[in-house]
């Protein structure tokens, strides 16, 4: 049975499963990472898999934990943010404009524009 589930997941990924579905199947893994994330950033030379999502960077900013999916050039980043204290707010001290859209539970889809 486990092999069948794995096979179906591989086929769906190969066919280009939409990001929203990959997020829904990854949310438990992401929450484990968010709950244990220390202060600062976790970045490697290459993206890291968390569940079914390829994450370029994970970092904590206060109570928020960001999972940056792209843009890998550093312009207009986007991804998901875990916010257990409620809807995140855009920081007036930042030169970028952040937007947050509630997805489920403590999770928000996040993007920034410069």
Average pLDDT value?
A: 81
Helix content: 25-40%
Strand content: 35-45%
What overall form do the CA principal axes indicate? globular
Number of helices: 2
Largest sheet: 6 strands, antiparallel
Low-confidence stretches: none
What series of H and E elements makes up the topology?
HHEEEEEE
Number of strands: 6
Quote the distance from N terminus to C terminus. Answer: 47 Å
Order of strands in the sheet with the most strands? 1-2-3-4-6-5
Structural class: alpha+beta
For the CA atoms, what is the radius of gyration?
Answer: 15 Å
Topology of this protein?
Elements: H1 2-14, H2 19-36, E1 40-50, E2 53-61, E3 64-70, E4 78-82, E5 97-104, E6 107-113
Antiparallel strand pairs: 1-2, 2-3, 3-4, 4-6, 5-6
Architecture overview:
The structure is a single chain. With 114 residues, the protein is an alpha+beta fold. The protein has helices at 2-14, 19-36, and strands spanning 40-50, 53-61, 64-70, 78-82, 97-104, 107-113. Helix content is 27%, strand content 41%. Strands 1-2-3-4-6-5 form a 6-stranded antiparallel β-sheet. The longest helix is centred in the first third of the chain and has 18 residues, at 19-36.
């Amino acid at each position: 049975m486990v092999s069948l589930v794995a096979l179906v997941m591989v086929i769906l990924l190969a066919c280009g499963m939409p990001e929203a579905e990959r997020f829904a199947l990854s949310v438990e893994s992401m929450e484990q990472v968010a709950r244990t994330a220390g202060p600062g950033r976790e970045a490697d030379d290459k993206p890291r898999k968390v569940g079914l999502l390829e994450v370029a960077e994970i970092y904590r900013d206060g109570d928020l934990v960001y999972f940056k999916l792209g843009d890998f050039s550093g312009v207009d980043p986007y991804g998901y943010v875990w916010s257990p204290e409620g809807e995140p707010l855009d920081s007036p001290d930042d030169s970028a404009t952040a937007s947050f859209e509630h997805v489920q539970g403590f999770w928000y889809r996040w993007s920034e524009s410069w």
